[in-house]
Design brief:
By secondary structure, the protein is of the alpha/beta class. Helices cover 38% and strands 18% of the residues. It binds uridine-5'-diphosphate-4-deoxy-4-fluoro-alpha-D-galactose (UFG). The site of uridine-5'-diphosphate-4-deoxy-4-fluoro-alpha-D-galactose has 21 residues, from helix 6 and strand 8.
Length: 331
């Protein structure tokens, strides 16, 4: 299959690109390199630098390549930032997705795997959160994803699109070659590991007065390779209909438990300081992923937090400055 991967130079998109190539697919990466890294794109993939906000640019790529399917990773994806800069999300994420979808419609490309989010569920009635839960976006970021999920529904009705919406809980960990490198880094696990590497003094824990056993927020961390396994399974299953899945391990860990895990894995004492709550953070988010387990036989390989942190630690130790300064591409 030929797959167009938008955001294929980013953290999750690059792992998808690599996994697709390893399974013998042909991959075209479209990325503006604003957050992504050229070095993260495997050499076997064709790379086009371009921005989805330019309809002509993406339309030309879809026309020339006519992929069999698209994986759409590229997006602004920070809950906190979306509370401060809503137009980056309600405008840019939405318009960029529309440009991609319009170009797909123009050229008869009708299969898409879409990166959605746990931020659709800011008021869950039950934990873990399964696909029957009411959608109440927790931020402009979550809202932008909810809007795009609805576009996909309607394009399926009107134009025969086949789609999978995959709602990620907290993606984490690394493969041997590819890891998490954001600038600035705002995610918990890489921040903790920067402390272990001596690049930061301490971890600020955003709030210890939540209604959880130790007072810190609980999240469901899912290894990026397991996440991408789910994409590949969903791609194969589009033939038999649209797919909507919540993706997590089904087990939550508090911020303090993640720090404890990193202390075990790194042997570093990792000093912490309690800070204010971060706006937009729900107390607990844990995924109910029975649907994809039952329907597609998905089964995450990294079930415990230490193995996830360990894989990230290995990558961060090998790449203390991330992709910066890396002279060669990953393969
Ligand atoms: N946290 C800290 N200190 C930090 C960074 C994070 O205490 O320095 C806490 C956060 O408050 C949160 C937890 O660690 O409770 C995880 O935070 P991350 O920033 O790593 O991840 P988020 O849960 O905010 O968001 C991630 C993705 C979103 C996605 C969401 C879905 O970045 O795109 O998971 O759950 F929507």
């Amino acid at each position: 299959m030929k797959v167009l991967v938008t955001g294929g130079a980013g953290y999750i998109g690059s792992v998808a690109t690599d996994a697709l190539l390893q399974r013998g697919h042909d991959v075209v990466v479209f990325d503006n390199l604003q957050q992504g890294h050229r070095e993260a794109v495997p050499l076997e993939a064709r790379f086009v630098q371009g921005d989805l906000n330019c309809f002509k640019a993406i339309d030309q790529v879809v026309r020339c390549e006519t992929p069999d399917a698209v994986m759409h990773f590229s997006a602004n994806s920070l809950v906190g930032e979306s509370m401060e800069k809503p137009f980056l999300y309600l405008n840019d994420n939405v318009v960029n997705a529309l440009n991609l979808l319009k170009s797909m419609e123009n050229h008869g490309v009708k299969r898409i795997i879409f990166s959605s989010t746990a931020n659709l569920f800011s008021d869950p009635s039950e934990m873990p959160i399964d696909e029957t839960e009411r959608i109440v976006p927790g931020s402009p970021y979550g809202e932008s994803k909810a809007i795009i999920e609805r576009f996909l529904h309607w394009l399926s009705v009107t134009s025969g699109f086949r789609y999978a919406c995959l709602r990620y809980f907290n993606a984490a960990g690394a493969t041997e070659r590819l890891g998490e490198d954001h600038n600035p880094e705002l995610h918990l696990i890489p921040i903790i590991l920067q402390v272990a590497l001596g690049q930061r003094k301490e971890v600020k824990i955003f709030g210890n007065d939540y209604d959880t056993p130790d007072g810190t927020c609980i999240r469901d961390y899912i290894h990026v390779e397991d996440l991408i396994d789910a994409h590949i399974l969903a791609l194969g299953a589009l033939e038999s209909g649209n797919r909507v899945y919540n993706l997590g391990n089904g087990k939550g860990f508090s911020v303090k438990e993640v720090v404890e895990s990193a202390r075990r894995v790194t042997g570093h004492r990792i000093p912490c300081e309690i800070a204010k709550r971060r706006p937009g953070d729900p107390a607990v988010l844990v995924a109910g992923s029975d649907k994809i387990r039952n329907e597609l036989g998905w089964s995450p390989r990294y079930a415990d937090i230490d193995s996830i942190v360990e894989s990230a630690w290995k990558w961060h130790k090998d790449n203390p400055n991330g992709y910066e300064g890396e002279k060669r591409q990953v393969r």
